[in-house]
Amino acid sequence: MKILSATEYRWLACRLTEALADVLRVADSRGQRIPDPEDEAEEEGGGGDD
Asked: 3-state SS string over 1-50?
């Protein structure tokens, strides 16, 4: 097993940070596309104030 230098660990930490930022961006984007259950219930119920 090779022991990494401080520079290699720093490079690895930067790449992992970038990957986690990408994962967070994708999760946030997908989460914004999920409709709010309360909004869906109001649309299906039609308001009910007739």
From this structure: CCCCCHHHHHHHHHHHHHHHHHHHHHHHHHHHHCCCHHHHHHHHHCCCCC
pLDDT for the residue numbered 34: 85
Structure token digits, residue 7: 């520079």
For the chain, the farthest-separated pair of C-alpha atoms sits apart, in whole angstroms, at 73
State the pTM of this model: 0.60
Task: Tell me the two tokens of residue 10.
Answer: 């720093």
Distance CA 13, CA 11 (A): 5
Task: Please answer whether residues 12 and 4 qualify as being in contact, where contact means their C-beta atoms are separated by less than 8 angstroms.
Answer: yes
